[in-house]
Write a structure and sequence with these properties.
Length: 311
Amino acid sequence: MIISPIVQERIVAWNTASLAFGPLLRGEAGCWETARRNYVEVLAAHPTPEGVTIETIDMGGVAATLVSPAEVEEGRVLLYIHGGGYVAGSPDGYHGLAGHYAKLLRATVYMPDYRLAPEHPFPAAIEDTLASYLWLLEQGTSPRKIAFSGDSAGGAMVVSVMVAARNAGLPLPVAGVALSPWANLEHGGSSMLTRDGVDPTVNLAGLNLMAKAFLQGALKNDPDASPVFADVRGLPPILVHIGESEVMLSDAIRLAAHLAENRVRVTLEVWPEMFHVWHLFAAILPQGMKALKGAAAFIDEAFKERMLDHV
């Protein structure tokens, strides 16, 4: 695939910001706050589409961002879980992606600003995201009008938080979309080797450092950290997007197979030559916008099916 100069420029900037975490994750001197701020600024360079408003809110004690389109259909809600390897990222870097999602779905998008490792290791991120979902339910939002989506670490949490909600006796959302999910912290898939160096944004060495900082002694195959090992029975339909160039390819395929084998309706899309979370580049990369439109169509269909079930 020929990548346009502007896409390549954004990839280089993303990689440069990500490299700053290496010394910090190895315990060397540095400033987490500065590295995180620079990382978010790079993501925020992806423009927010016209016709949406951005608001900072509180979701039951969890700071969050609300993205609202001009038109909302039937009170629809998307809970979006940002990525960043559990150590970086925030909703401030996702106004663009969330804004596109909001307009495509005609839904309000809530993005919890969950706590980050290593200061707040596993399972803090999952607990905060679950708390934000519980808050939505407590506000009277019908689970029939809620869907989940997320990318990378957030893509894994699409499944992990659903499992946690089910285990807590909460009603589940209508569907989930996992974008480039980091689904297995054991990193056992063959693509961790065959795509290492091919994936232009993520490598195995970096993932190992982030997993160690997140887990801090917890098992890599803990089902709450690596949903390929989770009890996923009873979950709603899930769409998995993964780029063929990604080191996470094999484990994303394994996640889809695990869902299918446990009677979860699952759709797996492998996008040839695409890199990690190419959806972020929707404003400048045609495949990014096409993938987001497909994700929105999947959720839209799930909303419609659930409403028909209750007519």
